[in-house]
Amino acid sequence: TALLTVVRRDSFAASEKEIFQALCRWCQQHEDGADTQEVMSAVRLPLMTLTEMLNVVRPSGLVSPDDLLDAIKTRSESRNMDLNYRGMLIPEENIATMKHGAQVVKGELKSSLLDGDTQNYDLDHGFSRHPIEEDGRSGLQVKLGQPSIINHIRLLLWDRDSRSYSYYIEVSMDELDWVRVIDHSKYLCRSWQNLYFTPRIC
């Protein structure tokens, strides 16, 4: 029961392959096999790559061929952000920092976006920016240090003049499939933005 409580959590800082291999070792130590099926059901097989499913899971003999095929079907037919990912959960802490391995991968003046300095900025320094284009494809992009569970973003929009901005925020696990969690594209916003949304792993 304690084992299942741990491995069924969304907040788990390990790859699904590592979780599977750890549970395999547990099952080998409990060879009566009564709990094997229940323990193995806690593994989120669709989060593993096809190669891992074929070369790691299949040879173990601990997962039925039907369950393996169902996982492959789910993996191939689901959109990426609908998969039941796991991530790191660090409550009440800013994880968009260099300390946690975050980096700005898109935008101008990248070093200013995550430095935490919200006092010293003007038109020339201390602020990240991007061109405002009609197609909406330009923007700022932050890559977190590891898959993480987030439900709150706090950001400071330029507020040293009377301009206002419209924006939206999307999250992803693979930088291909994006889910919009905040849509202020129809609002005029400025200064501090405190944004809450349903917890997402990204």
UniProtKB/TrEMBL annotation:
Pfam families per record: BACK (PF07707)
Domain BACK stretches: 2-57
InterPro entries (UniProt xref): BACK (IPR011705), BTB_POZ_domain_cont_9 (IPR052407), Galactose-bd-like_sf (IPR008979)
Domain of life of the native organism: Eukaryota
Protein's name in the database: BTB/POZ domain-containing protein 9
Provenance organism: Xenotaenia resolanae
Source lineage: Eukaryota, Metazoa, Chordata, Craniata, Vertebrata
